[in-house]
Amino acid sequence: MPSDPIPALLRRVSERRIRRDTFALSKDPLPFRTLSHTLPGHAKSTLDEADDFIEARLESCGYAVEREGCLVQAFRRDLKKNIHHQYLTPDAHDPWHVAWNLSARKVGSTTPEETILLISHKDSQSWIDSPGANDNAIGTAVNLELARVLARYPSRRSFWFLFCNEEHWPWTSVTAARNARLRGEKIIALFNIDGPGVRKPEDRAAGRMTCFSVYYAPEAERLADLMAEANREYSLGLIASRYKVDRPGNDDGSFIKEGYRVAVHNIGSMPYADPNYHLEGDVPERCDFSSAAAMARATLAAAVRLDLGWKIPP
Predict the structure, then answer these.
(1) Is the full-model pTM beyond 0.85?
(2) What letter would DSSP give residue 62?
(3) pLDDT band at 314 (very low <50, low <70, confident <90, very high)
(4) Which of 56, 109, 172, 262 is 20 to 30 A from 243 via CA?
(5) Which domain covers residue 75, as residue numbers?
(6) Could you give the residue ranges of the DSSP H alpha helices within the chain?
């Protein structure tokens, strides 16, 4: 019987690299990742520069990066709303920009028509100068780390690493999901990595690393359970739970609405417990990298188990 490849893959996940890339994307050299903010003396917006950074990281692992252009606008800001939710739909006459979905793909050897999708939004808030470290530079860094670890793994099924934009309007995952459906892609499972290191202050103080696999469709319940099973099987140290929502949301929701219902959003707390959510204080110094690395390992183990043939019941 062939040996389990997962333990060796788990050992390759680097908290140091996740930290390094998070700081690069939310502090130095890039304090923001928006299309409306360009650093002095630079020719490109901070989001375009973030795209170049992500593309270079993926290419260094041997991937060919595909770009999918989408027309978007920066959100307006409504100071009368709750401080964490002051985004406002832009006016039709506000400037339009091209935002890019970045995709890196790994083609499977025996069942290439089946795809496991790992997605994270890479932009920061377009209506406020927030570094967006927890939301979602750290999720982007985790997805980059998973792409790196899996680059030389001889997968049976195909892997798709997607980096999209959720803090501009409209969300670019909507375009990615619609085009996936039009291409007839068979996505057997989707993991959305957004806010992986945010825990309640009392959990963080007590050393409890919480992980919630948020799902909407009944078909995704077993995928949420697989995250918890992977955590137990490989002793990853998380307190893993599933969390059902009443309607699809976030970037996984874009795919659910196109019929890809086996989807979970992996997040560190539910309800989301970051007091600096959508604020200037969402800085990388406040990120919980140990928790994010543990969630990266759980997501990796669950995804590889699917690749090895673990079936989600219909």
Answers:
(1) yes
(2) T
(3) low
(4) 172
(5) 6-307
(6) 6-12, 15-26, 46-60, 138-150, 172-183, 201-205, 221-233, 250-256, 289-307
